[in-house]
Design goal:
With 250 residues, the protein is of the alpha+beta class. 34% of the residues lie in helices and 29% in strands. The strands form two sheets. A five-stranded antiparallel sheet has the order 2-3-1-4-5, with helices on one face. A five-stranded mixed β-barrel has the order 6-7-8-10-9. The C terminus is likely disordered.
């Protein structure tokens, strides 16, 4: 059976505003959708397997998004422990967790909790939101370069691209108007080298890049076994054996 994510929005059922439940559901759904994208299991649709009133409680599940619920739950645990972006979370997911926590104390909401449907729930409280805010806050800025693939682009709310770096991190980057054509035709969907101002949080993680220039980067090719053998062709011709090479390495 597919594991679901349980979301509870606590408070007096006569006081909790429908808008608060709507916002909480939207943030939880966005967390799951982004988690599924991080795991490359973005198919299927999230459905409501359970819904109860009073303190609104619901369970979201998607058989096609294997692992997304676990990633969200583990990320919340990491966010409670330290003010850093959890492993395999994007900064956007941290914002969604912060948005969930910031519902507490508004529109009749007294608490918000999240977790696996079959396990204990975690309170998305002030500690989580404080750590989320710190994880998103830039502490230092330096000029540098990164290499990664541009897999998201938007212009409605500012000129922004999303990058998946070769290291596996995801980060948002902004660009000036004069780079628009270059971004659209040479960067989106491509592996690129970006030069710019890199902002890092207190944990040293990249949280935002202001692009100064971008160039396409060649995709690394796996080494052919014949080419690898060729590296030792000359030494073999000179009478050096494999055991000699290994002994030299040691």
């Amino acid at each position: 059976m597919t594991e679901g994510l349980r979301l509870t929005v606590g408070g007096d059922h006569a006081a909790v505003a429908a808008k608060a439940v709507h916002e909480a559901l939207g943030a939880a759904l966005a967390l799951l959708t982004d988690a599924a994208a991080e795991l490359d299991v973005a198919g299927g649709a999230w459905t409501l397997d359970e819904l109860t009133l009073g303190s609104a409680s619901m369970v979201l599940s998607n058989p096609a998004a294997d692992g997304a619920v676990v990633l969200v739950s583990q990320g919340l645990e990491e966010l409670r422990r330290a003010p850093r972006i959890p492993a395999r979370w994007s900064p956007q997911m941290v914002r969604q967790a912060r948005d969930l926590g910031q519902l507490v104390g508004r529109r009749g909401v007294t608490y918000v909790s999240l977790g696996r449907a079959t396990g204990p729930l975690q309170a998305v409280d002030g500690e989580v939101t404080a750590h989320a805010g710190a994880a998103l806050a830039p502490k230092e800025t330096a000029i540098g370069t990164v290499v990664g693939t541009v897999d998201m682009w938007q212009s409605r709310k500012g000129r922004t691209v999303g990058l998946t770096l070769d290291s596996g991190e995801t980060v948002r980057a902004t660009y000036p108007a004069d780079l628009t054509e270059k971004i659209l035709h040479e960067a989106v969907g491509h592996r690129v080298t970006i030069s710019g101002e890199i902002q890092r949080n207190g944990a040293g993680q990249r949280v935002l890049i202001s692009i100064l220039d971008v160039e396409q980067a060649a995709r690394p090719l796996p080494m052919d076994i014949a080419a690898l053998a060729g590296l030792y062709a000359d030494v073999a011709a000179a009478g050096v054996s494999v055991s000699d090479v290994l002994e030299h390495r040691e």
